[in-house]
Write a sequence for this structure.
């Protein structure tokens, strides 16, 4: 792999230009409706320069200062998940023939080659888990797959954890270790650029890079280490499976059920939650019908309903399902926890429920 | 990449009314090549699609070596199944499958078999009964036990009577609530264990309401049946049938893909735990 180089800040637009020339649609962080969201970038000027975030349980606010930096914030509500696992999409359509027959039509999406700039380590870890779920089992999902194959990922190492972040404790950040095509470390005067794949290396070769000064590399590394040390939250262990399943009747489940609104915000913002419902919408003329899938949540009544029975009829059972799956049975399914420490479920919970506090309380804090 | 979500057209070749709310649809793919390629094991299920309404998981009750037939016995309880109930011969549906792990029929060879069912749980197990009866020499004594809530919930009454007259076959029927003329026992299905004999190493396959299966498991374990000889067919919400949609999870298991038939030790920890 090519040696890292330094991209002076005024040349950031060259990165977008090189990606555009290579045929990619460039998406990146922008400020919309008071939040950092990933949308199409017209130019590097669209990036959230000088924007910082303040996150707490149940709180998310942005503010600006004179900093030249464009990535001085922790993640907003969404990043990669909706780009690959669409919130709602057509799976297939059917049509009624005049002879009473039915024809079925696949609806595999047309995916444009897409580059995402500013992907954080937690979201790369989450992407790895979504890849395992949708692509690496016995029935790969062609909808997710076509979008995934068209993706070019430009990671940015995280130097500004929010109070809700805990990726250091899950082992998923703040440094982007793998799974990217290019990685950037942002300094005031520019970016340390590293390639992580042959595609990334080819693109790196087109950038007007300068030789990397060891001081710049050391400064960048130091900021990432400091970002890990600054994190205020942690899960008690990377494997809480046995602790959670040994405590299925812990009084804390009743306690959290009193606070949880079962609103599904946590599962929507979670970058690893994969549940979805399939649903049918027939055309009014009866000649065709469309089969959709849409994000679903284990916090809804319908999620566990079979005729005459709802397996999880109350909030206590739903919160317990979410936590024991995310931090427990995920180990059985995919060999690790389903939590990457992004902290979104804490910030976007209207009741400010903190997954790290709930897991610690249920497991008794005695799990080394 | 093949599209695992896409159904294929099937035709209803025959429709059999089993009881006022239960019917059997005999299906075949309209594409003869698909029909020729189609293979399944008893205990597996298909996703059956009703045009304009949606899909439901339904277990397959026909014989796996009869390549002309895909039989589904269905109770009209929901939007899709009530719509399916109104269709007749010649109507078209969508179908994809088969899915999941079926009954351990290879493991069962040479052993006594006990089939324990409750309610419409008998439907997925009827395929096993037919399978064993057509390959009688490969299996030991066959015991068929069926529990129902009310005596008039029993379907295939004549079938049970016919099976009970076969050599080396025992049939036991129990109803929670008896009625005049009821020829079975009154009580939970576990009362039948005292009335039948099965050898050591018998394989138990059960399907039906979970409280019934849990009671049976406890009683059979008390009587010395080994945990790994108990096999249960589980039911959970399923939308995709391929382990993607998440609805059917029971702990780390995707019931659609890892089940629906499980050996007891694989689900023991969460069986009977409310909410899983």
């Amino acid at each position: 792999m090519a040696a890292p180089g330094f991209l002076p800040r005024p040349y950031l637009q060259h990165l977008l230009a090189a990606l555009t020339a290579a045929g990619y649609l460039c998406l990146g962080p922008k400020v919309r409706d008071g939040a950092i969201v990933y949308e199409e970038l017209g130019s590097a000027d669209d990036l959230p320069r000088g924007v910082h975030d303040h996150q707490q349980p149940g709180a998310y606010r942005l503010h600006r200062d004179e900093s030249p930096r464009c990535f001085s914030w922790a993640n907003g509500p969404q990043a990669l998940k909706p780009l690959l696992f669409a919130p709602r999409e057509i799976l297939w359509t059917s049509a009624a023939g005049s002879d009473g027959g039915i024809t079925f039509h696949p609806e595999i999406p047309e995916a444009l080659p897409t580059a995402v700039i500013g992907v954080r380590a937690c979201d790369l870890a989450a992407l790895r888990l979504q890849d395992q779920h949708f692509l690496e089992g016995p029935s790969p999902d062609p909808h997710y797959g076509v979008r995934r194959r068209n993706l070019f990922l430009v990671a940015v190492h995280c130097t500004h954890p929010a109070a809700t972040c805990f990726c250091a404790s899950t082992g998923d950040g703040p440094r982007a270790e793998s799974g990217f095509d290019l990685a950037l470390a942002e300094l005031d005067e520019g970016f340390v650029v590293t390639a992580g794949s042959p595609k990334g290396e080819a693109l790196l070769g087109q950038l007007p890079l300068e030789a990397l000064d060891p001081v710049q590399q050391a400064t960048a590394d130091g900021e990432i280490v400091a970002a890990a040390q600054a994190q205020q939250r942690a899960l008690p262990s990377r494997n809480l499976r046995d602790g959670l399943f040994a405590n299925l009747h812990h009084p804390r489940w009743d306690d959290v059920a009193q606070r949880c609104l079962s609103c599904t915000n946590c599962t929507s913002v979670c970058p690893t939650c994969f549940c979805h419902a399939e649903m049918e919408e027939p055309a009014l003329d009866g000649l065709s019908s469309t089969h959709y899938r849409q994000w679903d949540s284990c916090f809804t009544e319908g999620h566990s309903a079979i005729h005459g029975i709802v397996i999880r009829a109350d909030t206590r059972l739903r919160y317990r399902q979410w936590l024991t799956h995310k931090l427990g049975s995920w180990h059985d399914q995919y060999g690790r926890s389903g939590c990457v420490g992004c902290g979104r479920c804490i910030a976007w919970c209207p009741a400010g429920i903190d997954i790290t506090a709930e897991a610690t309380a249920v497991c008794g804090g005695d799990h080394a | 990449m093949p599209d695992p979500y896409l159904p294929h057209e099937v035709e209803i070749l025959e429709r059999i009314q089993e009881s006022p709310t239960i019917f059997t649809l005999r299906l075949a793919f309209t594409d003869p090549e698909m029909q020729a390629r189609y293979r399944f094991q008893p205990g597996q299920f298909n996703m059956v699609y009703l045009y304009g309404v949606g899909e439901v998981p339904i277990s397959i009750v026909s014989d796996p070596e009869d390549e002309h037939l895909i039989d589904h016995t269905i109770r009209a309880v929901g939007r899709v199944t009530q719509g399916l109930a109104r269709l007749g011969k010649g109507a078209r549906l969508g179908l994809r499958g088969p899915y999941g792990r079926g009954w351990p029929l290879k493991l069962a060879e040479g052993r006594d078999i006990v089939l324990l069912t409750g309610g419409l749980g008998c439907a997925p197990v009827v395929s096993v009964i037919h399978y064993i009866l057509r390959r009688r020499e490969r299996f030991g004594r066959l015991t068929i036990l069926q529990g129902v809530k009310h005596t008039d919930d029993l379907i295939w009454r004549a079938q049970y009577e016919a099976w009970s007259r076969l050599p080396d076959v025992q049939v036991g029927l129990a109803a929670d609530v008896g009625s005049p003329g009821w020829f079975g026992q009154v009580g939970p299905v576990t009362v039948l264990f005292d009335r039948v004999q099965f050898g050591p190493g018998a394989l138990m396959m059960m399907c039906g309401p979970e409280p019934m299966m849990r009671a049976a498991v406890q009683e059979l374990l008390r009587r010395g049946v080994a945990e790994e000889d108990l096999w249960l067919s589980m039911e959970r919400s399923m939308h995709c049938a391929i382990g993607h949609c998440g609805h059917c999870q029971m702990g780390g298991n995707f019931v659609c893909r890892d089940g629906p038939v499980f050996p007891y030790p694989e689900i023991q920890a969460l069986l009977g735990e409310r909410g899983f």
The interface with chain A takes residues 1-9, 30, 49, 51-55, 77-78, 90-94, 235-237, 239-240, 242-247, 249, 251-254, 257, 269, 273-276 of chain B (CB under 8 Å). Chain B has two domains: 8-99, 105-267. The radius of gyration of chain B is 18 Å. The first strand of chain B starts at residue 8 and ends at 17.
